[in-house]
Design brief:
The protein is of the alpha/beta class. 35% of the residues lie in helices and 20% in strands. The strands form two sheets. The chain has a six-stranded mixed beta sheet, sandwiched between helices. Strands 2-1-4 form a three-stranded antiparallel beta sheet, with helices on one face. Bound molecules: adenosine-5'-triphosphate. Adenosine-5'-triphosphate (ATP) binds next to helix 1. Keywords: ATP-binding, Nucleotide-binding, Transport.
Amino acid sequence: MIDFLDTAFSYASDKPVLPGYRDSWETGLIHSLIGPSGCGKSTLLYLMAGLIQPLSGEIHIHGKSPQPGRRETGVILQNHGLFPWKTAWQNLALGLEIRGVKKSVIHEKVRQVVKDLALEGKEHSFPKDMSGGERQRLAIGRSMVSDPDLLLLDEPFSALDAMTRERLQDNLWQLQHKGPSHSCGLTVVLVTHSIEEAVFLSDRIHIMDDQGGIRSLSNKTSGPGSRMDASYFEACVLLRKQFELHSRGKI
Ligand SMILES: Nc1ncnc2c1ncn2[C@@H]1O[C@H](COP(=O)(O)OP(=O)(O)OP(=O)(O)O)[C@@H](O)[C@H]1O
């Protein structure tokens, strides 16, 4: 579980971003966080990553407060964080090398991630010679080599064209459903501005408003193949209505 125990945060004392949030998010699922610009989605992600600390209350990830160096957390912020002077393979291997993991293990893990994220043939390319979608897959791959149990993604696909975005959404969904390397599965938390992306990918959708209120919904229409389903369109319409009501403070 990811437990929010009256978690509160503000950058400035006069305007709390999160006035005090209490909920438990089930692990092993894909969660989307959606809401108007500036409502605090990235801030909630940073709190889960342990990059900032709550002003009061706590967050527990599997019972423990998140620390910035938590090995099982993969974080991909809006700027990818790739090393431009290293090849794709070297970017993928770096985190494991720093930890002193055996060369043969690194080779096997990197090879698997290259395969999972369809980066075959790009192993020796530098990030500047890769497309936006390939770079984004590489950034996800860099987190995946460490076998995370929690993957935090801040608008990972927003800068991509529609077709590439859909392909990467498929990749991410398949990766999360591949079969867990942890007993609790892989939990993905995704900040997005896209209602369609939230419906396609998520098991739970959390709608945040300008006052830091969060309303959570279950979603059953996720996954490849669902984009053409009537239930997918219905879920998008339903979420759009909820989103608009919530944004106007009516829920
Ligand atoms: N380092 C900071 N110092 C002061 N205020 C900040 C800082 N970072 C963010 N804020 C403010 O906190 C609020 C929440 O910001 P946050 O980036 O979490 O929102 P968001 O929902 O992710 O926005 P967007 O969708 O536009 O990326 C905003 O009003 C923002 O201006």
